[in-house]
Amino acid sequence: MPMQSGPRRSAEIFDATLRLLAERGYERLTIEGVADRAGVNKTTIYRWWPSKPALLGAALGGAPLLRFAVPDTGSLHGDLTALVRALVDVLTESSSAALAAAALGAASQNPELAALVQTFFADRLAAELPIFRRAAARGELPDGTDPMLVIDALAGAVWVRVLLRRLPVEEDFAENLATLLCPRVGTSPAAGGPRDTDGTRGRTG
Description:
Layout: H1 2-24, H2 31-38, H3 42-48, H4 52-61, H5 76-92, H6 94-107, H7 111-137, H8 147-164, H9 173-181
């Protein structure tokens, strides 16, 4: 049935879209090329995604290469460390790294695609908010902590190190970055309990 043709072949269409984006860049990406790579008629694609930005936005939203599980390690430091490691994996694996760089480059050229990429990152942030709710419940977050600022700082540091500076990522990079970003209350990477405002651990007795 026509209502099923899009969803049934969407995996192949999205995969073709993202691979061609990584191989050719946004300017040379065409719906006709995607249709040929995916083995579908171009009218099938146009029926569901009437423009190249709409198709690419949908493909990015459903891309397994750019998705990773939201961690729940039992501490804010552990969760942030796991997030850094997952993002490093995405940006150092050749196919996903090329895709991420091409997608952001394309978004800078097209307002419609830029809006779709903004939605992608907003959805990603929404998925990561439970990390901060759990941390608040454990007493690890001071009032007024901005989860978006923490996530942006985390992701920005990884992007700069991997894609802009093109430097190797040391084994302790993720843990060191998480330590830097963790608020100065709550648990620390050494799991020694809450810190006082001067950065020292609270004493007992």
